[in-house]
Amino acid sequence: MATYSTRKYVRMIFRDSGGSNFTIRISDPKDDLTEAQILSAMDTIINQNIFQGRTGDLVEKVDARIIETNISDYYD
Questions:
Q1: Secondary structure class of 43 (helix, strand, coil)
Q2: Residue 76 domain-assigned?
Q3: pLDDT in tens, 26-71
Q4: Is 61 left (phi over 0), alpha (psi -120 to 50) or beta?
Q5: How many domains are there within the chain?
Q6: Residue 60: which of 27, 4, 13 has the closest Cα?
Q7: Which domain holds residue 37?
Q8: Which residue among 4, 34, 43, 59 is buried most deeply as judged by most CB within 10 Å?
């Protein structure tokens, strides 16, 4: 019997001071999450230096998306 599931997450990509990309994924965002809230969170992450990239501090936003995946599992 097939099983179906959905996964949803926010993917935020930053560039660090050395030019490398740094990705943060947050699972199960609330349904009414807005673009402004995501961009504000990204600004906070950069301004408060919360995470360190591979080659330095996070210095700019590259991309932000809400991604939803539907999965149909027919056989294990």
A1: helix
A2: no
A3: 999 999 999 999 999 999 999 999 999 999 999 999 999 999 999 9
A4: beta
A5: 1
A6: 13
A7: 3-68
A8: 59
